Amino acid sequence: MLLDRILQNALPGESGAARLQQVGLFTLVYMMQGDDEPVTARRLAEITGQGEGHIGQQLRKLIDLDLLERTQIPNRQGRGRAFKLTVKQNGKTRRLTKAIEKGARSRK
Description:
Elements (H helix, E strand, L loop, with lengths): L1 H9 L5 H17 L8 H8 L3 H13 L3 E7 L6 E7 L3 H16 L2
Antiparallel strand pairs: 1-2
Helix pairs in contact: 1-5, 2-4, 3-4
């Protein structure tokens, strides 16, 4: 299966549960990055019901793997800073985004 090969190559050395969490977060960031509201760790925590610390830990792994990038932006209140998450454009992410898009098309 294409997705299995992608998971093994894109997220090596992780347990199955950790890979599933990371692919889920990657997919959420990919699908939400076109929204009016920026994708942040706080927004992902609110949507998933997970703690911000846990989400941040998984996001750091995706950033270290060169799959996501963080850009500093003003927070919702405009007084502090937050980090907007976006999918990087590289070979690893192209394989993952193609698999996501293929899956979405096949479900229509």
